[in-house]
Amino acid sequence: MRAVAALLLLAACSGASAGSDSGAAYTLPLGPDGSSAPLVVPFDGVSDGVAIDVTAPGCFRLAGAPRGSGAPRAGRFVFALEGELEVAFEVIDCATLTPIPANDTGAALEVTVTPFVIRDIDRVPLRLHFEPDPSLARELDDLLAPAGLSVRIETTAEAARTDATFHAGDVDALAPLATLAPGAIDVVLAGCLRFDDPIFGPPATLDAYTPRIPGGFGPADAIYVRGADCASSDPIELEPRALARLIAHEVGHVLGLHHTVETDGSTDTLDDTSADNLMHHNPSRAAALGWSASQARIMERHLSAMEATRP
Ligand SMILES: [Zn+2]
Q: Which of 173, 182, 177, 138 is nearest to 159 (CA)?
């Protein structure tokens, strides 16, 4: 069974602004393999994209490639609307990240679809949970300029540098690190960050992390940067240029970008990216900076959606 969101777009686009109030709600039944029924959003000729908020009975992810974007229990996805859009989701085990047959969940996904029109937005709002070096904003602007973006740093706070051990299916340990709020991308200077995958261990030390692609506003939805040595617990003071590189890479994730090449060799679906890019899985190692045209377009779209569908 396909859930068709036709009436929604006609209704929502007649308003002056596409706030979250204009979204329409749907229930997507889960099939025997844990996949949801497809959600079909027709092309209305007016909207540039749709934001789809999903609430699931457990962890879930977008069905189909590319995967690897975390496994939240609720979250927002943003899609361009260049024709009819058909998407589906699958409920997965939080620990193993494998699909759960619907018989085990006995529930459906609740989704809200909100159309938006791309606005001319080029400032990325960042809320830094640490006192930045005065040159950090300039370094970030230099890295984002090729995508036509710059940063707007809204507030700062003292860094708590709290340690956290977590994995993609369980990011609860990140939640206590900072109080997050909608309206900007929170950047948290943490202590030691350990990614402890229950299947593929051993625990790995991360330089930076964001729980899912694209980001939105949900549990632990922020950029976390490691600010302490995991062995000694001594604080780490990154050079502004190195810190900006980590943050710009995570901003890319929050604004919808996958790694150009994953550690397992799989690649993103964009045809104008190469391995040597700021979205390399290890941004500190990528020789080339900058963004491809497709990457810039995706980031602009997500930024617009963030503003247009802000909770
Ligand atoms: Zn990354």
A: 177
Distance CA 203, CA 188 (A): 21
Ligand 1 centroid, distance to 201 Cα (angstroms): 18
Instruction: Count how many Cα atoms sit within 13 Å of the Cα of residue 152 in the half-sphere of its side chain.
Output: 9
What's the pLDDT tens digit per position in 54-88? 888 778 888 865 544 555 666 777 777 878 989 88
* Global confidence as pTM: 0.78
Question: What class does CATH assign to 3-116?
Answer: mainly beta
Fold assignment, 123-306 = Collagenase (Catalytic Domain) (3.40.390)
Cα(243) to centroid of ligand 1, in Å? Answer: 14
Contact 164, 191 (CB under 8 A): yes
Gap from CA of 242 to ligand 1 centroid (Å): 15
pLDDT in tens, 126-138: 999 999 999 999 9
All structural domains of the chain with their residue ranges? 3-116, 123-306
